[in-house]
Specification:
Helices cover 19% and strands 23% of the residues. The chain is an alpha+beta fold. Strands 1, 2, 3, 6, 9, 11 and 13 form a seven-stranded antiparallel sheet that branches. The protein has a four-stranded antiparallel sheet with strand order 4-10-7-8. Helix 2 (48-54) packs antiparallel against helix 5. The longest helix has 11 residues, at 2-12. The chain starts with a helix and ends with a helix.
Amino acid sequence: MAALRESFPKLFAGRFDTGVYPDEWYWREGMSLPDVTRHIANAWKSDLAVARLALSADIGQAVARLTAWSGVRLGQDTIWWKAPRTKPIAHHQDSSFMDFLDPAQTVTCWVTLDDTHRDAGTLEYVPGSHLWPLTSLPEAFHGQQDYRAQMKAAAAAAGVEPPDPVFIEVPAGTCVFHAGEIWHGSGPNETGDRMRRSIGVHMIPALAQFSDRPGGYIYRRYQRTDDPSMDESFFPLLWSEGGGRTGWLDDYCESGRRRNPQRAAA
């Protein structure tokens, strides 16, 4: 946890262990407004402390047990930093962001690096909302004044009253798992002295492939022409039945180098 906390200011200042940029980088030191929630996606490509968490075989195995998937690969990680007095993140469904995959499924492991509190913008879940239809990508995500508006519209479309959310108030170092269909988000950090740093590890079934549907404005770039398979260079296999796992992960987490041990031996 200490190493992960130290990585946050490095990442948002653009100091990357590997020299590789993340896929998404929302908030730049010296450029962005101070009241914006900071967000990076696929920091595992940039920072080795994050890589050791996001590429964990233990987290992959836990998801396999929860879902009965035969194998689990990493879809992406997300870094969240709610500094004091920062804005909310709109309610959404994680699986909406996987609309370019078949199946469009994901499970998230949310890891807290600070004690979380309701007034500091902790994660909140909407009970039973995983049974509502999957919606399209949200129109707004950062800083929406009514950050629950999209969830309320989804509840109306499902013919139900939106339930009161459940606030996840837990100690630092907690892992919380949720299905990609459940509506969730976070309010503003209204405190003047509390951080809310966390990492989401978003996992997908090992058998997932790129679909023929449009979408995937960022991650579709990793699809090979006329090939729906997901390349382990970008969507590594974390765990599978029988112990299968992408060969270069452990070496990469230690050194930042991607070397397949079988090829190295040859």
